[in-house]
Specification:
Layout: H1 16-29, H2 41-53, H3 58-63, H4 80-87, H5 93-107, E1 117-125, E2 129-132, E3 135-139, H6 145-151, E4 154-161, E5 171-178, H7 186-199, H8 206-216, H9 220-227, H10 243-249, H11 253-264, H12 269-276, H13 292-308, H14 316-321, H15 331-339, H16 345-348, E6 354-356, E7 367-369, H17 371-394, H18 400-416, E8 423-429, H19 435-442, E9 456-459, E10 463-467, E11 473-478, H20 488-498, H21 504-512, H22 515-526, H23 538-541, H24 543-553, H25 557-568, H26 574-581, H27 585-597, E12 602-603, E13 613-614, E14 619-620, E15 626-627, H28 628-640, H29 651-664
Antiparallel strand pairs: 1-4, 1-5, 2-3, 3-4, 6-7, 8-11, 9-10, 10-11, 12-13, 14-15
Helix pairs in contact: 1-5, 2-5, 4-5, 5-7, 8-9, 8-13, 12-13, 15-17, 15-18, 17-18, 17-21, 17-22, 18-22, 24-25, 25-27, 25-29
Length: about 675
Amino acid sequence: MADETGRPDGPARLSEHERGTEAALSQLVTRSGFGGPSRSTLAHIDMVGRFLAGAVDPATAVAGQTSDVCPWGPLAGRIGAAALRAVSPVTADPHRETLLALLELWSRTPMADPAVRLRRGRVAASVTAARDEHGAAVTIGGADPEWVARKNPELAFLDRAFAEGAPPALGDVVEVADAPLGWGTADQLTRLVALVRAKGPVPWDRKAVDLLAGKTGLSRTTASVALCGFLGHPNAKAGKLSPQARKTLKVTFRDLEDAWFRDLEGHTDEDRLELLADVLPQDPEELWEPGGLGEVALRLSQAWRQRFGAKPVAPPATVQAAETVAPNVTGAQLCEWLIDPGAVPLLTKDLDTWLESDDTPKYRHQKCVPAAETLQLRNLIEAVLLGLRWSYDELPAGDPVREGASAAYDLLLQRLAHPGLLLPACLFDTGSEGLDAITGRFGTTPYSGPSELTVDYVDDGLTVASLIEHRRLASLFFRPALYGVDDRTERLAEVVDASRDSRHAFERVRLLRGKGAEAMARRIRSGALPEGAYEADPSASAPSLVEEAAGRLDVPPDSAALYLQLLTLTAPTDRNVRKWNNWTPARLRKAAEPLVARDLVARHEYRGDGRKIFLPGPYTQGPPPQETWKAGLKAAADAEDPRNPFIWRPLPDRFTYAWHHAQKHPPA
């Protein structure tokens, strides 16, 4: 009798314990969890183990197969992944018990014997178990023998070689690979289970997280996820991290989403099992000793680099600081793009995009394809732009992320110069003018692309705009390669600036092509800043201006440098100033004293502000707290050069402008 899937021998109903078993085991070998009921996977593993050991004949093995067994085959040779998860303090107790039961069972099978020659693979099966003088082979799950013989389904399998010669084939082999055992002998598994039951899970060690992050360039969240056995996939039906587990790891659910979908999404389930297969110590008891998890982190970092290649690694502090720079990428991803831009495909290869009709209600007539690559490029444009300014402003000279940011900027400009690239600009409200508002600005030449469209578009070379009767909103797209070439850019900019729609791509391209971004990239490339120094320290980036200010104000150079920082910078907190200037708290207090004595600054000690020294006059509470005088400074600078926003100018220029503005309009 067939079940609802059309396959014979439908599954038996599971007990609650068996459902927990399926959930825990399936989450090990598939990130989204097991999707349906099945008989006990532990019973199936036991049957396969006894068959490979010779205790079960092929007919009994065939009869013991089930079509809905959890796909546990990838664990062969990689049982260390299950063991790491079993000892993790964030594994839920019911799942830990299931994993310990698995490890106990596994220790009694040939899969825990390093002398046994095992292979794992996939086969277009005509039978589900076979044995001869050369070896034994068995599928991981199967069904009625007649159905298998007729359908030749592709199934996972394990085989064991007894001596020379190949084990029997179960059908046409699709893929096969050796499954040698590293960590996970019977003795290691038995001892580890006893230790967990006697001592509890291994204590969490945040230093181990920092070690793994530092040696691989991963974010702390991703490193934490790896060290607990890659638990916590947001879409998993099992293995979600509880609030207490997230508290232990010091991560939010959003952190986990970013770690999986941005740092780990390109890795396969087998990648993750392979990474964890041999990271545990030969003597399991070392896990509970001081630094035990740190040794796991060290071995995992070596496995990571071996599997995914050696890459430049950003300092952990830089990765952490990058977490809030770009809204659509993690700090680790941003640093990876900036530190090694030549390894980013969208920065090294031109992308052709075009319009295609999309008649779904939400996105009607607004589809730019290929959609996934277009979105990735838009996020990359934003990340490189914001990353350039952040790394220029906030990182010291010599930081590998800062040094790579200018190369990422150069490569991105090359991609934006590609004439085949079309990006979304905005939605244009045509008002009472209707279609005349579009044709009057962008002409009447029709758009021509590789796909037939259900809506007409006009194309002036730079801008592509939809023409829809009786609809006030028109979709606008633009070609970055033609941005700034002639007055067509001004016509488009006028519409985009007046639009209530997002200006993501257009605004980012405008800033990338601006004088400020170019000057920042040039400044980084020049190497003018001494290694270890920050641009935000005017003593390093604008020493002649500090000398001028010290003479004009009749204060020491340290005081002049601090005054320029207070005039210019958005967040000159005490901690930031000490970091930028490499000052001690005592040196900062000493630098402030002459400024306070001359009423150039005032002391305000409000808890939580992070600052004790402000310019005279009113200020906003923030965050961060900000003198209102600075709003006038920025407005004046932007009015004088609207194409070059104040915050996008190199810091020596900002310091200079703020100093001269303060001479004419002193803070008060």
